[in-house]
Amino acid sequence: MHGLINRAIQCFIQDTYGGPAWAGIAALTSLPEGGFNALRLYDPALTETLIDTATRHLEKDRAGLLEDLGTYLVSHPNRASLRRLLRFGGQDFDDFLHSIDDLPDWARLAVPDLTFPGLELRSLGEGEYRIEIEENFRGAIHVALGMLRGMADDYGVLAVLTLAPDRPGIAVQVHEHQFSTGRDFNLAVSL
Amino acid sequence: MTDAVTLPATLALLDKTSPFHIAVDQAGKMIHTGPTLAKIGFDTPLIGSDLLSFIEILRPDIDPSFEALHAAAGKKLHMRFRDDPGVRLKGVFCPLDGSDVAILDLSFGIGIVDAVRQYGLISRDFSHTDLAVEMLYLVEAKTAVVGEVNKLNDKLQTAIVDAETRALTDTLTGLGNRRKFDTEIERRLAAKEPTSLMLIDLDHFKAVNDTRGHAAGDQVLRHVAQILAGVTRDGDMLARVGGDEFIILFAGPITIEKLDVIASRIIVGIETPIPNARSFCKISASIGITQSMNYDHPTSDQMLRDADRALYGSKEAGKGVHTIFDPRNGLNAH
Fewer Cβ in 10 A, N or C end of chain A? Predict the structure, then answer.
């Protein structure tokens, strides 16, 4: 698993549950000293162990924890760069959804060896979509759900996103495009 | 097929496909600009004014005339705004066949990042086929990755300095270790700095270790380190080079009389009983000394050998004394 993902989980736990919680989980998982290196590759089994330990230690269920992780990734001030990179995908939320098939390619453009879940958008009608997900690790769909909910807020749309009942996928219903003002996005990096 | 495509239709098309363009008439006056230029906003009105008074052609090197621009039609042009010469532009000039109109299509090229910031451009200011947004994305992704690399580099640098410090430090006493001594003496001799080497070997230390245990032994070693630190000055180097063996490198020219005094003070200090577990540890020290001034071409090996000879002279003289190596008269115990 790419260090960026492990590092993201580490920052999520530190920023959300505090340093001591992370220290407890790190000790139980026998993680590398000083935390994860974002530029290294790690054994995928280590990520599995980390998530399992975190769910037990924080007394959360796996789906809920991963969804919170997804939302954190696109909404926490410490993770502003990822949110910005995602906003390059589209001018509005529908535009963003239509670019979602390309998301793995956008990610590869930034970090060549980053694996990403396969994503495919299907338009079902006015403001109604279905996103099929091919998980690259168990529970990737929950992270995606959290991220998409965060991005809907970011664009200021009122949308209902739920896990599709039958097969791995997310059902999206956009109710109102200008529900709130959303967050500002300038193409230029702020200095 | 229709030949009768109107000029307004053509310009409307260009507004969508090449939003950063200018249309000029046969006299070189601007008659239309795409939405990107409107967004940038210039103080002087563009429509009706001269294209070449607004844009300067830098490459190819042509006359600043409209005729010369026509002659360069289809070629890659390097340009800049006369009002804002910091922003570089590239583009192509193309006459619209069957009309008096020509089009200058512009791009920010590699200066896109600065231009976007300066003019507050957004996605809509670029055509959907323009890779500008992808380019900006890449710049931002690269910036984030480089930032991460720099942070890691800083961490590594700190770790390297820590490791180097540790590699030169005796962890028990905090003094330098054998490697520190080797490095220092080589450096001083190479720089031809006058150096005096004092080799200090503890007497009766083994008895402390054997009868009172290693913890007491360690305490004694730390105590000795403090005594030695008390007689050294800035620029001197102090190292523990063996179990109970210490070296001081004194910097600068020091007289033998001064070294005598220092060695005596060290031995008196070390012989003062050290309190330990409601009794006292009693040890002493033997010292051997030599100076780089003794040799035409001093080497660390030679100096260590001679200091060692002097040290054993002290041991044979009954311990608790110091001996200064003298190249002419041999050893000289005090």
Answer: C
Q: How many CB atoms lie within 10 A of CB B237?
A: 21
Are A81 and B144 within 8 A, CB to CB? yes
Q: What's the pLDDT score for residue B3?
A: 63
Q: Is B44 in a helix, a strand, or coil?
A: coil
Architecture of the structural domain at A92-176: Alpha-Beta Complex (3.90)
> Tens of pLDDT along B3-14?
678 999 999 999
CA-to-CA separations, B279 to B31, B226, B275, B283, in angstroms, rounded: 104, 20, 6, 13
| pTM, entire model | 0.68
Nearest CA in chain B to A185: B122
User: What is the rounded CA–CA span in Å between residue B110 and residue A59?
Assistant: 51
Fold of B7-126: Beta-Lactamase (3.30.450)
- CB proximity A111 to B under 8 Å: yes
Domain boundaries, chain B: 7-126, 131-167, 178-333
Q: How many CB pairs under 8 A join A and B?
A: 56
Could A189 and B117 be called an inter-chain contact, meaning their C-beta atoms sit closer than 8 Å? Answer: yes
Tell me what ipTM this predicted complex has.
0.81
Q: Look at A91 and B123 and tell me if their CB atoms are within 8 Å.
A: yes
Decide if pLDDT at B51 tops 70.
Answer: yes
Q: Is residue B60 pLDDT above 50, yes or no?
A: yes
